[in-house]
Write a structure and sequence with these properties.
By secondary structure, this protein is an alpha+beta fold. The chain contains six helices and six strands; from the N terminus they run H-E-E-H-E-H-H-E-H-E-H-E.
Length: about 220
């Protein structure tokens, strides 16, 4: 080593000693490749507060404690919403219970003073049975027979009950469950028109069928 190199080495040694004597340790920052640390590994700063740099220092090595840009916090990505949430929110609609009444003229169903169904009456009841079987559920089918006031009251009562039973039996033959059907004879007690006229008496001779259940869902 020549004299110039010796002098330069002594100069750097002295400069390092001066800097170390005037330096203070950081409380938290730790030393690394670009900055000098003390015996415990903490960063060392000069009297003016600057971190003491090593010979390997470059601007990219500056940490936040030594004037570098603060590290960017990692932002957590939002969790995707489960696709099942939308499906769970869909609540099936409650089936709608319906009640409807069908009134059939006795003249179309039976001959005078008879409880035997005519062919045309059977066809009409068969079409009604098809409608019933098209429902999603049959809760009740109430069959009520009525007469006009011609003849004895007791006879009319019995005749109206027999006709209601005849209608029930035909619907049963068409596949309507017996457990859903009920019959009642009202005789001449509940007229819907005057019995003083031929037209009025024709309206009073009837079979009323009240249906309760739920309709099948439209497709």
């Amino acid at each position: 080593m020549n004299n110039n190199q010796k002098i330069l080495g002594i100069t750097f040694s002295c400069l390092g000693a001066v800097l170390m004597n005037n330096s203070v340790a950081h409380e938290t920052g730790m030393a690394h490749e670009g900055h000098v640390g003390d015996s415990s590994g903490h960063l060392v700063s000069t009297g003016s507060g600057d971190c003491l740099r090593t010979g390997s220092w470059n601007a990219a090595l500056d940490t936040e404690e030594c004037g570098g840009a603060p590290a960017k916090a990692k932002v957590a990505e939002p969790e995707p919403e489960p696709a099942a949430v939308a499906a769970a929110a869909e609540i099936p609609a409650t089936p709608k219970v319906i009640t409807k009444m069908v009134s059939l003229k006795s003249g179309a169903l039976f001959d005078v003073n008879s409880d035997t169904l005519k062919p045309a009456g059977k066809d009409e009841l068969s079409a009604l049975a098809d409608q019933l079987k098209g429902m999603s559920e049959i809760q009740q089918v109430k069959i009520v027979g009525h007469t006009d006031s011609t003849g004895a009251e007791a006879y009319n009562q019995t005749l109206s009950q027999r006709r209601a039973i005849a209608v029930k039996n035909h619907l049963l033959d068409q596949g309507i469950p017996a457990s859903t059907m009920a019959t009642l004879g009202m005789g001449e007690s509940n007229p819907v028109a005057s019995n003083d006229t031929r037209e009025g008496r024709a309206q009073n001779r009837r079979v009323e069928i009240t249906i309760q259940g739920t309709e099948a869902e439209a497709r």
